[in-house]
Specification:
Helices cover about 70% and strands about 10% of the residues. The protein has about 130 residues and is mainly α. Helix 1 packs across helix 3 and helix 4 crosses helix 5. The model has no long low-confidence stretch (mean pLDDT about 80).
Length: about 130
């Protein structure tokens, strides 16, 4: 594993993405309260993101327990995205970039962990009947 610190000015593109996600979550929370999932309608099984609209509704109403109840992985993903965005903002302010290179074994392990988390979350959604 190698870490490089590069000095210079960088763009804020991740913040544009984060703002769009936040606006979409707000719109889903207020305007799409009765939407139906086509995957769930066709198969009878929840999709990987089932409960995301309810998570957004719970977030904006301050129901932290409800957020984890509807879809735990969405909360983890949004938390990681928030801290990544904050880190990128600090890189922009202080004009540096940190690049981390990992070997194939670490990369493969990280991918397997992510796939396992996604599968466990989907199994949770199926078992609990979301």
């Amino acid at each position: 594993m190698s870490i490089q610190i590069i000095r210079g000015k960088h763009s804020l593109s991740i913040h544009v993405v984060w703002a769009l996600i936040l606006i979409a979550a707000l719109a889903a929370s207020h305007f799409l309260q009765s939407s139906t999932c086509m995957f769930h309608k066709l198969t009878g099984l929840p999709c990987l993101t089932c409960g995301s609209s309810r998570v957004a509704q719970a977030f904006f109403s301050g129901d932290l327990q409800g957020m984890f109840y509807y879809n735990p992985l969405v909360i983890v993903f949004c938390g990681i995205l928030f801290f990544f965005s904050l880190f990128k903002f600090l890189e922009f302010i202080f004009r540096f970039e940190i690049r981390i290179s990992v070997n194939r074994k670490i990369s493969f392990t990280a991918r397997m962990i992510v796939i396992t988390l996604i599968a466990a979350n989907w199994l949770f959604l199926v078992v609990t009947g979301r």
